[in-house]
Amino acid sequence: MQRHRRYFNYLTFDAIYAQRGIINLARRFGKGVVIVLKHNCEDLLQDAEQLLPMSSLTITEHGDTKRYLREVEELANWEPAAAKLRVVESQEVTTETRTVKKEKILVRVRHTWIWLTTIPATELSADGIATIGHRRWKLENRGFNELANLWHAKHCYCKEPRAIEAMLFIIVIAHTLFDLFYLRRLKPETRERYSKLALRLDWLAH
Q: Model pTM greater than 0.85?
């Protein structure tokens, strides 16, 4: 974090990382954290669930998804952290595709997400916290999932430790450059015709 601190402003984590060391380390380097709040932090979750219904409601829309947002600022000191924290809840109503009797249908579903954050409301809105929280899954899908399945990063091409590290760096760099080209340089109609896998296979064939 010390070497690359200027490349990012916020860190997003799963609930297992709601720990004193991680939160305080990020604060020491001036970075905000957004962490999914689950039952592993039972006391904090109970406090938040009691206070959130009394807070004001904000509604935002993102395509087919509508967010009903509430937040509690400066929650009383939580033992694992050295400072007061903020909790954001997003109840989201969206359209999902379900398969019923071998037929695909569209249904409206509701999901509830709660995040713990050190980012103050003056810096980022509750809607912004929810957006960052959801980006963690996009990073996992675009990063780890694609590296493993499209770029075969799970395969060990060599046995020497430094060679393994170098090979992983090469794969990550190739994946990053390809992703930037696919998302930034190709026209939308081309992306509709070619998936990333189809485009990569087409290039390899030539």
A: no
